[in-house]
Write a structure and sequence with these properties.
CATH architecture of chain A: 3-Layer(aba) Sandwich
Number of domains of chain A: 1
Order of helices and strands of chain A: HEHEEHEEEHEHEEHEHE
Radius of gyration of chain B: 25 Å
Oligomer: heterodimer
Radius of gyration of chain A: 19 Å
Largest sheet of chain B: 22 strands, antiparallel, barrel
Strand order of the largest sheet of chain A: 4-5-3-6-7-8-9-11
Distance between the termini of chain A: 63 Å
Shape of chain B: globular
Largest interface: A-B, 53 and 49 residues
CATH topology of chain A: Rossmann fold
Distance between the termini of chain B: 34 Å
Number of strands of chain A: 11
Shape of chain A: globular
Number of strands of chain B: 38
Strand content of chain B: over 45%
Amino acid sequence: MQGAQRIRAWWPAVGAALLLLFAGQLSSAQTMTEYQVKAAYLYNFAKFVEWPSRAFENPTAPIRLCVLNYQSFESELNQMVEGKTIAGRPVAVVPVENGEQSHSCHILFVNSSQDRQVQHIIEVLRDTSVLTVGETIEFVEKGGIISFVLQDDRVRFQVNYKAANRAGLRISSRLLSVATRVIE
Amino acid sequence: MRSASVTPTHKLFVTCLFWIAAAGTNCIGQQSMPDLTEASLEQLGNIKVYSASKHMQTAGEAPSSVTVITADEIQKYGYRTLADILQTVRGFFVTYDRNYSSLGVRGFARPGDFNTRILLLVDGHRLNDNIYDEAMIGTEFPIDIDLIERIEIIRGPVSSLYGDNALFAVINIVTKRGRDLKGLEVSADAASFNTYEGRVSYGRKLRELDFLISGTFYGSRGHNQLFFPEFNTAQTNNGIASHGDDDQVASSLATVSFRDFTLQSVYGTREKGIPTAPYGTLFNQPGNRTTDSHGYINLRYEHTFAGSWDILARTFYDRYWYQGTYIYPSPLDPAQISPNLDFGDGKWWGAELQLTKTVLSRNRITAGGEYRRNIRQDQSNFNLNPYSLLLDDKRTSFVGAAYLQDELTITKSLALNAGFRYDYYSAVRASADPRVALIYRPWSQTAFKFIYGQAFRAPNVYELYYSVAPNLPNPALHSEKIRTTEFVWEQGLSRLWLSTSAFYNTIDDLITQEPVGSTSLIFRNLQNVESTGLELEVKGELFRRLEGDASYSFQETKDRYTGQFLSNSPRNLVKLGLSQPLLGKRVFVSLDAQYRSRIQSLASGAVSPFAVVNLTLLARKISRHMDLSASIYNLLDKSYFDPPSGENLQQAIQQDGRSFRVTMTWHLGSDRP
């Protein structure tokens, strides 16, 4: 019995040590797949963006992370966010096939293989508050809101602040400060 | 998935075992472990990723036991050739007869084998030639290893996807792209035995266009003198072979990608002096030499269509050319010489189409077809003094194949991977090869894999038709077949990654060369062989940024009829690699060591066990644009031997003692960090 109690007393210390260990590891150059990191970013974007209240039916309605025609990434993302909440809202991963299906999304991830659809999707979602996330520089330049870019084997991102404003999205300054480029 | 892309093995996560050890809690209850979603934006931006493939698998998800070696490791450990790299891989061992390097995997290497049971791919393109089936891994490998981005090694039989030759392993070399160079790169090195190498590469990515072009020259005079006791007579220079060990290589690589299209052209040629006097040639005769050249053009198209259809199409044209020059005394006048010239001339093209689609949300189906047309598979041989034609064999053939694979997600933690491939040969019997892998991942750091697979190798035209004495042809040969059952356990453990594998192989109708009477040799479907083995590996950050990799493998390979252990098969292999960054990750000290147990060699002799240690010091950005690396190979100057091939009179071939290399690389790219 005493032994068990001693173990319990050690718990927080062990936990803290592990967290430190973990944090130390993240800061060193670790290797993950590109899309694991992108999935984590998408979840993080949801934390640092504020949608207009009309974007949600009620205060506990889920944040909808939509993935356009990219099944393998969708399951990756699903695994990562399953059971997670952001500001009391659960996170749901939703597969979509085109811009028309994406109106109710909060975040829409458009993989680079969908290049041909990009112009159309941006047009269709112009007056909605969908945070569009692409993978090419052209994507933010054409009016998409965020684009991932690969720099030195690391995933960074650019933000089109103008497009975000038009969509009624409030992007936190923390997110903007990390972006490699902000289009005003 | 054809290009089974995998990530390196050290994982981020704190593991269940650690929790059990440290806190005594129940592992299953610990699902909410720290993960990537808790990383900050800054941390995410610092994680290094691979960007090559859209359908990355982690090593834990791959339906095989997988090893990945990266460009970073190649530079840190000072590897010189693909053979150097493979020597450090768990369960692999490389032997060198001072002409070709032979790779043994899981206790299996036939003497004089041209690595025919390993499939070697460069960016998915098959490199084994169409005459000898040879996977060239020494200096004859046609790509400068500085241009390798990573190497993916998939163990076990994978004929269900790749067809011929994929018996023991598939080695896929992923080359660098223009985006990895970002400008001009120049490299020069000098090494022991009068060895010099130079490389010039240029690569860039301009919007949707990515291109890389590179050329390398390598020259080595080799040992000025090599002593072979078997030739220690007054007539044969007291066993000393002078100036017969030279090695010259020229190679080039060009890769251009535009949108979904990638065009790649590779050419490599090597000429090697053979100091060992094989096939009864004259000893101490620098005219004994081989030249191997391989070039190809490969066009690939990859696209993801709406509705998550992935398409991969490729077409290629290959040219392979071999010339051996062997010096014999002339039958007319023994004081004169008579060169014997041996040629292999291969030409082939092929095409492949592969479609992948997710159906019913749980099935990822891959279906494909491949066609290879061997438009030339010629072998010839003649003596020059006096002229006599001994062989002029011209062949053509084709291979057609179809394959299907399903990756079925049964539950969140259980996946089934099943595949089947049918290969039709115009010249020999067809082969059908299934493969099944069950992958159970109860926790995110734990994977159990149960794998059953079959693979085959069709006899090549050399084994079928080569008929220069002492060889006799055997057109009745058929394919050999391997069946493997393997159990793999992979476990993340804090900053470490553990992998355990137990396997049982049986090979039926192994194509083996055996003597006929006292003067001839013939290839026959002869032996039935079984091998049992166990492999253990631990990799990761051991202590304060000290990265390491240690492995042990044990195997036993027997002839099923005679019960005798096979020759050329070490029972124990130990590998160790350690790399310590210093001065804020600008300087690296890396040490690697390999131990190989005793090998029974062909002619009832044995090759002693040994351990070799190599040490490399690498300084990155020693000036603004320059990396400098210095290596000592065989640091302890250990005298060690490799088993010979059947054509050698030697009982064992002595390997290099302590030697050195210094490499300087200038990165003149505009935006290097």
